[in-house]
Amino acid sequence: MEALPLQVTLYIHVSANPHVPALYLVHTCDMSQNYPDLYVLLETRTVCLEINQPEPIDIIGKQVERLQKEKASIVDQAHQRVAFIEDKIQQLLCIDHSTIQESDIPF
């Protein structure tokens, strides 16, 4: 596996919001161009990162992991929803809709 050089330009901003204390933010684009009221560009820096080139099977493995997590999340949400609906059904089944006689009232 060969390391690939990746050159990235980082834009370092400070928040211009007077209600927020000085907050330094790093983006991959100049946010002050689109939001001049929110960001002030302090400086730009170019950094070079060495990225290990993944094998195709590694990429597929990462995709499978992500899909398995998404599937587990959906199943969990579905179980919670089913339990909620089952609880509502049981609450409705517990309601007695029959009429009673006045003599059955204890007071």
Task: Spell out the key features of this protein.
2 helices; 2 domains; 107 residues; three-stranded antiparallel sheet; alpha+beta
SSE inventory with pairings:
Elements: E1 3-15, E2 24-27, H1 31-34, E3 39-52, H2 56-94
Antiparallel strand pairs: 1-2, 1-3
Overview of this structure, please?
The protein is 40% helix and 29% strand. The protein has 107 residues and is α+β, with helices and mostly antiparallel strands. The protein has two domains: 3-52, no CATH class; 55-95. It is elongated and about 85 Å long. It starts with a strand and ends in a 13-residue tail after the last helix. The model has no long low-confidence stretch (mean pLDDT 90).
